[in-house]
Each structure stands twice: as C-alpha cells, then as structure tokens.
Inverse folding.
C-alpha cells in the first residue's frame, strides 16, 4: 500500500498562546476576517474530504491485474491435436486420394520376362564390344552399361550374365541359344500372354 503524501503543516490559526479550536473563542485572521469554531470545523472537514479524494484517486488509477485466461491454449489444443492426427494419417497411411494410386509390384511372370529381356539387350552390348575390340570386357563398366542385380563373368571365348529373380537363378551364356533363353518373354512384356 502506498504511503500518504506528507502534507506541510499549517500554521495555527490561533497563535501559540491563542485559544484552542472548539473553545468558542474567535480571533481575527491576517486578512482581517474573524475566524471561529465553525470555520475551523469547515477547514477540517475540507481537509478530510481532500484526503479521501486523494485516496480514491490513487485506488482508481492503480492498474487492474489481468486474469490469465486459458481460452487461447484450449482453443489451440482443440485445433492442433486433430490436425496433427490428420497429418500423421496422411503421412503414414498414404491414402490414394492424396498420394494417388500406389505402384503395385509386377506379377512374377512379368518381372522375370523383364529381367530376361534386359539381360538379352545387355548381352548384345557385350557382343558389340567383342566385335569392336576382339575380346570380351573385363567388367560391365567398360561398356558403360549395366542392369541392377546382374553379374557379368567374362571368359576367353564366352561370357555369362547371372541374376536371381524370386529366388530362382537366371543365367544367360553367350554360347547358348538366345531364343531358348528368352522363351515367351517378348510376348509377356507386350501383354499378349500373361
């Protein structure tokens, strides 16, 4: 609580030896007017009113403490929890509506046919290198081409390409019939047969 401001003391309306307030005696003031007990009471009442006015002014000018409201925190929680759950569903659930249809794995026959066709094309590149250089390359890096999962083994007069599809080895040798290796792969790739 704030301290009351110090008011300067007023000189006594009656001198040091003058009558006391409330004694009924009157005395002339410095302006020449007579002062009596009623004037003193009026002055005291006015001082009390002024003290009260100062006190009320101090109380009304004091800042009102703001109550903390949790409404914003509650509103943000109510909005953010469903949005976070929805974002997690979109990210982990991958709905087709947002991400589009997923890529389905190829059927086994199509995957094997694609691998056989890729190995056949790679074998043509190796043969072209052999015709140009008179020997088979030591690795597929020399022809600048490769197929994922296909291993190359070059020998003096033949080469071999090896891969695995669904746990089954697929081997292309340059000294064997290519049509037998391909089988129905071109027809499966063209979707003429399934």
């Amino acid at each position: 609580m704030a301290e009351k401001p110090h008011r300067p003391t007023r000189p006594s309306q009656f001198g040091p030896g003058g009558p006391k307030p409330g004694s009924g005696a009157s005395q002339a003031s410095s302006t020449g007017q007579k002062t009596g007990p009623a004037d003193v009471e009026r002055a005291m009442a006015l001082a009390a009113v002024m003290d009260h006015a100062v006190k009320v002014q101090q109380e009304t000018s004091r800042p009102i403490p703001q109550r903390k409201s949790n409404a914003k925190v509650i509103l943000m929680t109510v909005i953010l929890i469903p949005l976070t759950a929805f974002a997690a569903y979109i990210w982990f659930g991958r709905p087709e509506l947002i991400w589009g249809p997923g890529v389905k794995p190829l059927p086994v026959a199509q995957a094997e046919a694609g691998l056989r066709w890729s190995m056949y094309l790679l074998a043509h590149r190796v043969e072209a290198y052999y015709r140009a250089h008179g020997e088979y390359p030591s690795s597929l890096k020399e022809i600048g081409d490769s197929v994922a999962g296909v291993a190359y083994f070059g020998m003096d007069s033949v080469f071999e390409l090896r891969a695995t599809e669904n746990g089954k080895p697929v081997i292309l040798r340059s000294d064997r019939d290519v049509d037998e290796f391909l089988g129905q792969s071109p027809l499966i790739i063209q979707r003429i047969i399934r």
About this structure: The beta strands are 27-28, 34-35, 151-154, 159-165, 168-173. The radius of gyration is 54 Å. The longest strand covers residues 159-165. DSSP finds six helices and five strands in the chain.
